[in-house]
Design brief:
It is a single chain. This protein is α/β, with parallel strands linked by helices. The chain has one domain. Helices cover 31% and strands 10% of the residues. It has eight helices and six strands; from the N terminus they run ββββαααβαβαααα. α1 packs across α3, α3 runs parallel beside α4 and α6 runs antiparallel to α7. The radius of gyration is 17 Å and the shape is globular.
């Protein structure tokens, strides 16, 4: 089985530093996560990621840098940023799905929960900006966007799971232990989706027709109706049983 690990910047990303990740075909670090996961093989970041936070050139031998030049066309294959959710956790997932074609995508450090008390870390490197929680029409329901990714992945014979041990997560993905994932030799559906409901959600996206080929949707932000996108999020939330979404 072809397995991919995606590492975000939540505090538990540091767990990956002690992991034997050799059974993963690719380890994708998002933004600053390359500093938490020494075994990363791909680094993905947006155009505005500060250059001073990039790894030094000498450390890039045998590693891949993934920029908007690579990930925008791939995400467009899955409906584009407006429907997928314009934050790098989801972008990394769609890029992995389309470019690497794995059997399993596993997340760690991408729970997108930022309720740390005063003085506590929101990210492994300290207190960072909660980018997925910004006011944005594409990110009104992170839960719906995670179900969309999982549903489209399963249509492409890929399971999506969460290795997090955090008490809560905005990713509505099945939790799994690292050892269980390592031992997996056969892919199987991790969530039962209602295929008719998935078709309804995809049809609603197509009929609404929100599309920005460049990915720079914010340049035409006023054209997108947040209420209509909320309705589509609601359709995605109905693609699985209530028990999964609770």
């Amino acid at each position: 089985m072809k397995k991919v690990l995606i590492v975000g910047s939540a505090p538990d990303a540091v767990r990956t530093a002690s992991w034997d990740t050799s059974f993963f075909d690719h380890v994708i670090a998002i933004n600053n996560a390359w500093m938490a996961c020494p075994s990363w093989s791909c680094l993905i970041f947006p155009d505005d990621f500060p250059k001073e936070r990039h790894p030094c050139i000498d450390s890039l031998k045998g590693k891949q840098i993934v920029t908007s030049y690579e990930f925008v066309p791939v995400q467009n294959e899955f409906g584009g940023f407006i429907y997928a959710g314009a934050t790098m956790s989801f972008t990394a997932g769609y890029w992995a799905l389309g470019a690497l074609k794995p059997d399993v995508i596993a997340y760690i450090g991408c729970d997108m929960v930022y309720d740390a008390r005063v003085g506590e870390k929101t990210h492994f490197y300290g207190c960072g900006v909660a980018d997925p929680l910004r006011e944005d029409v594409t990110l009104q329901s992170l839960e719906a966007k995670s179900l969309r990714l999982q549903a489209l992945a399963e249509r492409n014979c890929c399971a999506v799971v969460n290795l997090s041990k955090q008490p809560s997560s905005r990713l509505l993905l099945p939790r799994i232990e690292l050892q269980t994932l390592e031992a997996m030799t056969q892919n199987s559906p991790t969530t039962t989706f209602d295929n008719i409901a998935v078709q309804d959600a995809l049809r609603a996206e197509s009929e609404l027709g929100y599309w920005v080929e460049s990915g720079r949707y914010w340049e035409n932000y006023e054209q997108f109706d947040s209420r209509k996108l909320q309705e589509i999020d609601a359709l995605w939330l109905r693609t699985v049983s209530e028990s999964v979404c609770s």
